Amino acid sequence: AQRVTQPEKLLSVFKGAPVELKCNYSYSGSPELFWYVQYSRQRLQLLLRHISRESIKGFTADLNKGETSFHLKKPFAQEEDSAMYYCALSGPSAQKLVFGQGTRLTINP
Amino acid sequence: ETGVTQSPTHLIKTRGQQVTLRCSSQSGHNTVSWYQQALGQGPQFIFQYYREEENGRGNFPPRFSGLQFPNYSSELNVNALELDDSALYLCASSYPGTKGETQYFGPGTRLLVL
Question: What's the mean pLDDT in B13-25?
């Protein structure tokens, strides 16, 4: 079964502190992993995907196939990072995205 | 480049009624996916359409149906509405062909079933 688990519904950190949003997945095969973000009053949008191996807005995520994890990290949080973050996976055919429940990140000044 | 648009933004229906939600894909995209997002949950895949044909379906009953038109706009129809159908309905468009294709989401239609 395909499943994405985000263990933290809420995460609160202070500005300038490191941030790590956890994501674990269950998939038999080689999935594509994504992080989507939804800022206040905006639509859901792609933040980054593992296949691109890029850093967006200071965020990075490494796919760990052994631990089946795709945690999102940023060394120094900024107030504008406050948002809802969703981890998602898709299979080779890319027919659908399977989302986790999401983590609401709040950056305190 | 025009983004994904959805209509209406909000809708209130009563149990047993039927509803049609509409989605206009981003320019150049020929694939549209529909998701249901219940309060406090992540989006759940309903189905996907590619070049007017259904191209995958999630765990939703047949009363959830869809259409895609030649201009790649799309409709989601839900018959015999139930209270649990109250949710935010998202459509997302994409252009397949590469691994890890990006899906571009619309703002959603919030449906309330009373």
Answer: 97
Q: Which of B102, B109, B110 to mutate to test the interface with A (most CBs of A within 10 A)?
A: B102
Task: Judge whether residue B105 has pLDDT over 90.
Answer: yes
Helix (H, G, I), strand (E, B) or coil at A52: helix
pLDDT at A92: 67
Q: Scanning the structure block, which residue is given the tokens 């983590």?
A: A103
Report the DSSP beta bridge partners of residue B10.
Answer: B110
Strands B44-50 and B31-37: antiparallel
Contact A24, A69 (CB under 8 A): yes
CB of B101 less than 8 A from some CB of A: yes
Please, which residues bridge with residue A19 across strands? A74
What value does the CA radius of gyration of chain B take, rounded to a whole number of Å?
Answer: 13
Residue B28 pLDDT > 90: no
